[in-house]
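User: Reviewer 2 asked us to show a designed sequence for the structure in our supplementary figure. I'm pasting the structure tokens here. Could you produce the per-position amino acids so we can include them in the response letter?
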């Protein structure tokens, strides 16, 4: 219990003032936990505030149109989180009368809710004694106890969860879970932690064995795939453009984009202009065609690097289903396209 007591004392003295820590409302805790997957707190907080302002309850979120949800999510990435969030809100509102399941096992049944999120809601909202295991927890426990288990392995989560459960004061699991995650986020950080000021610097096994920079052990990531996107930015006589919805499964599902030519490598002006003339705009005459960014914009996703170019095509006459700049900005786009639109429209 010494570890837990020292950890909780540190937390009470050093914790950040975060909006989702001021409530035990499962809706707000669920919202924050989904947002903070793959997202830093500093980036996620403004989104949390925007969402809770737009959708103060699960019923409000359930009643929203998916495009409104995706628009508010724009820039957070991993858009499947937003789509699952919306579907789960609808399920809770209609099938559960707006009430979240009140235990870990039932929370796990919700779409988009995994072991970590279910544990967070169960402990923070209902004080259930179930440990959270995220990257921060892996790091703190592996270093303090010198655990060399590969955290990418199938058995790692179960092993670390058992260790965390053993350390957890069963009368106050929420406080312990918050404390260990905060300690990993602020003190026991991934690179170059300041061990001199750490409250565990006399008892941490990794520090004593000079292994802090070696733990936690994690096997290498999958190989990154490169993709080459060429977006066609149309402008007709009325200065209207056209967009399309990405309906195929994969990245950016249900977000919008300009007409796309995906190639196997970076292609030159001659190749792209020929593709556009051959495959697009049969009903209009192309007046001019130009490359808007000679250097590709590199947009990095977890397992893909996108090399993005925008090509300006001026058309004679008007295009079918054309939209003006003001309307264009109301649609949800991937952040790379959103940034381009903000800059160039």
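Assistant: Here is a per-position design you can include in the supplement:
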């Amino acid at each position: 219990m010494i570890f837990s007591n020292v950890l909780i004392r540190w937390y009470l003295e050093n914790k950040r003032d975060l909006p989702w820590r001021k409530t035990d409302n499962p809706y707000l805790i669920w919202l924050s936990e989904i947002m903070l997957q793959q997202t830093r707190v500093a980036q996620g907080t403004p989104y949390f505030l925007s969402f809770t302002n737009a959708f103060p309850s699960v019923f409000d979120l359930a009643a929203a149109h998916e495009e409104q949800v995706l628009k508010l999510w724009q820039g957070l990435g991993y858009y499947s989180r937003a789509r699952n969030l919306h579907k789960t809100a609808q399920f809770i509102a209609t099938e559960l009368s707006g009430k979240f399941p009140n235990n870990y096992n039932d929370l796990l049944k919700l779409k988009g809710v995994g072991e970590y999120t279910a544990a967070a809601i169960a402990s923070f909202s209902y004080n259930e004694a179930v440990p959270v295991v995220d990257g921060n927890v892996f790091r703190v426990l592996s270093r303090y106890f010198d655990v060399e288990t590969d955290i990418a392995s199938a058995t790692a989560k179960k092993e670390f969860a058992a260790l965390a459960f053993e350390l957890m004061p069963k009368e106050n699991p929420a406080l312990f879970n918050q404390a260990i995650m905060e300690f990993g986020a602020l003190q026991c950080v991934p690179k170059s932690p300041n061990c001199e000021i750490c409250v565990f610097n006399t008892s941490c096994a990794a520090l004593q064995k000079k292994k802090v920079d070696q733990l936690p052990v994690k096997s290498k990531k999958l190989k990154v795939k490169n993709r080459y996107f060429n977006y066609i930015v149309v402008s007709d006589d009325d200065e209207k453009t056209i967009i399309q919805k990405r309906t195929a499964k994969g990245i950016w599902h249900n977000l919008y984009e300009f007409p796309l030519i995906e190639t196997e490598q970076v292609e030159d002006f001659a190749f792209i202009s020929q593709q556009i003339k051959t495959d697009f705009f049969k009903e209009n005459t192309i007046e001019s065609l130009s490359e808007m960014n000679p250097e590709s914009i590199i947009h990095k996703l977890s397992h893909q690097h996108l090399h993005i170019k925008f090509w300006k095509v001026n058309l004679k006459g008007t295009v079918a289903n054309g939209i003006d700049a003001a309307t264009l900005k109301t649609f949800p786009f991937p952040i790379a396209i959103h940034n381009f639109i903000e800059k160039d429209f």
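For the response letter, you might also mention the following. The CA atoms of residues 240 and 324 lie 5 Å apart. The domain at 225-344 is CATH 3.90.79.10 (Nucleoside Triphosphate Pyrophosphohydrolase).
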